[in-house]
Amino acid sequence: MSTAAPATAPRTLSLEDVETTLNLIDDRFYAYGLSALLVTVGLYFTVRTRGVQLRHLGTMIRSITGSRSGAQGGISSFQAFAVGLAARVGIGNVAGVALAIVFGGPGALFWMWVVAIIGMATAFVESTLAQIFKERGRDFTFQGGPAYYIKNGLGSRAWGAVFAGLCIVSVGVTVVMVQTNSLASVINATVPEVAPWMVGVALVLLTAPIVLGGLKSVARVTEVVAPLMALAYVLVALVVLLINIGELPRVLSQIVHGAFGADQALFGTAGGITAAVLNGVRRGLFSNEAGLGGAACAAGSATVAHPTQQGFIQAFGVLVDTVLVCTATALAILIAGRIDGSVYIPGVTGLGDDSVSGTLTQNAIASVLGQWTSWPMTILIMVLAYSTILGAFSYAEVCLDYLTRTPTARWALRVAAVACAFIGGGAALKTVWTLADVLLGTGALINLVALVVLSRWARGVLRDWEAQRAEVAAGTRAADSVRFVAAGNPYLPGRLPGDVWSR
Q1: CA-to-CA distance for 19 and 29, rounded, in angstroms?
Q2: Which of 57, 58, 416, 419 is the most exposed place for a label (fewest CB within 10 A)?
């Protein structure tokens, strides 16, 4: 007589199981799927726009100098650029780049440069589209971004709402907590006397007066803070470089050799040329945000005479983020490592302990300039996180306005953003952050599909601008008369909905 085996109780799904699954999805999705798609789309736009990021680099630089005026009570072109820059330049430019160098070696920086140049074309297209399909908002402002060009360009309000909802959750709420938490960890590691909750309180005091004032208030602050913050950070790294200028040729050689696997000693802890490529590409893509849709939310809010103005300016923002700020971090680490092996050694530093990336940049600067830099660097990093929080909130508010423009909802978002700045200081939210990454990536997929389908509109608007600039060069048109009119425009693929560009 056989005896039946005792029934096994079904295994319950634990939080650890959920976290493991999400991390697996996150790693595979970002490292391979989304990264490859972002690069492919960027290359496609580079070809279709005939290398707009290279042909019009001078125009991008000149656009910055003349972008402070013309807001007419709304958001100026420069303010929109500053909001985008504020969101781009954050903790990721410090700890994130350090992590890429630890895992991928010096060669990771080279691939950051490559994806930045490619991403500039994507940034141009999505920001130009944000301007083309924007709508009139409140108080002389405009509302634009992926949700709006999905609705007005593709005719799908529902998919626009999906993107808006994903953006609010993943950027407006979670990114705020991520920045606060990352900042708290960095500060606590550098200055143990400062507890994480203290960082949360400080950020609440700093963000509340600005966030509660809405998008215009954020724009006024970021147009001052974001450029100065980026400049200050680059200048610190420049001092490190100038003191050790003799090491620059050797560091550049490390970057090139590491990028193509020419020197095994320059591999990161992940090992090989593949690690350099993957870490450089991934860090570069998610630092400059080209294709993710966030910066387009800021771009669509600007008041400009021609949509290409924001396209050029936001493309330049990608260059500033990666080629200047990320490069500043990487060079500071690599130069310090050349003169002090305790700071950084390729393939050794971070082996078995990737948490070293959180303080690697500060340690590199301190090893060259002295320990007195700990507090100034801590303050500078805090400003980086602060500006990113403001930028992330502005993206969320634009998306919220797409879903509803009720004052109650707007104030609820503002209060939630301030609360998240405090919660992120001391909470352990790794699972939530991973989920937010997946949600952000899902939104990016929706955005990329829309960009590819609607890119003919951006190309048409670019041709319109180039035709008008040719008339200026020929002396048949005044420089200040270049503006976009949709009605009867021969360069557009069809009739543009709405009346924003009707005359």
Answers
A1: 15
A2: 58
Chain CA centroid to CA 412, Å: 25
- Residue whose C-alpha is closest to residue 126's, from 311, 342, 280, 396: 311
With 0-12 CB in 10 A as exposed, 13-18 as middle and 19+ as buried, what is 235? exposed
Within 10 A of 493 (CB to CB), how many other CB atoms are there?
Answer: 10
Query: In this predicted structure, what is the pLDDT of residue 363?
Result: 85
Query: In 3D, which of 475, 445, 496 has the Cα closest to residue 35?
Result: 445
Domains of the chain, start order: 23-481 (1.20.1740.10)
Q: Please give the span between the terminal C-alpha atoms of the chain, in angstroms, as a whole number.
A: 91
Whether the CB-CB separation of 446 and 150 falls below 8 Å is answered with yes
Task: Please tell me whether the overall predicted TM-score, pTM, comes out greater than 0.85 for this model.
Answer: yes
Q: Please, are residues 440 and 171 in contact by the beta-carbon 8 Å criterion?
A: yes
Kindly report the number of other CB atoms within 10 A of residue 1's CB atom. Answer: 2
**DSSP one-letter string for 393-462:** HHHHHHHHHHH---HHHHHHHHHHHHHHHHHHHH---HHHHHHHHHHHHHHHHHHHHHHHHHHHHHHHHH
Question: Please, are residues 99 and 278 in contact by the beta-carbon 8 Å criterion?
Answer: no
C-alpha triplet 455, 302, 457: angle, nearest 5°? 15
Give residue 45's pLDDT: 96
Q: Confirm if 415 and 213 have CB atoms less than 8 A apart.
A: no
In sequence order, the 6+-apart residues with CB closer than 8 A to the CB of 191 are: 374, 375, 378
pLDDT for residue 30:
63
Shortest CA distance to 179 belongs to which of 393, 327, 34, 361? 393
- Cβ neighbour number for residue 206 with a 10 Å cutoff: 18
Say what the pLDDT of residue 69 is. Answer: 53
**Residue 352 carries which side chain, given as an amino acid letter?**
G
Contacts of 376 (CB under 8 A, 6+ apart): none
How many angstroms separate the CA atoms of 399 and 406, rounded? Answer: 13
Backbone angles phi, psi at 184, to 5 degrees: -60, -40
Alpha-carbon torsion (234, 240, 246, 251), positive or negative: negative
Helices 107-132, 95-104: crossing angle, 10 deg rounding: 130
Q: What are phi and psi of 285, to 5 degrees?
A: -65, -45
Report in angstroms the alpha-carbon separations of 40 from 115, 122, 291, 460.
10, 10, 11, 21
Residues of the chain predicted below pLDDT 70: 1-23, 25-32, 65-75, 138-140, 214-215, 265, 353-355, 425-436
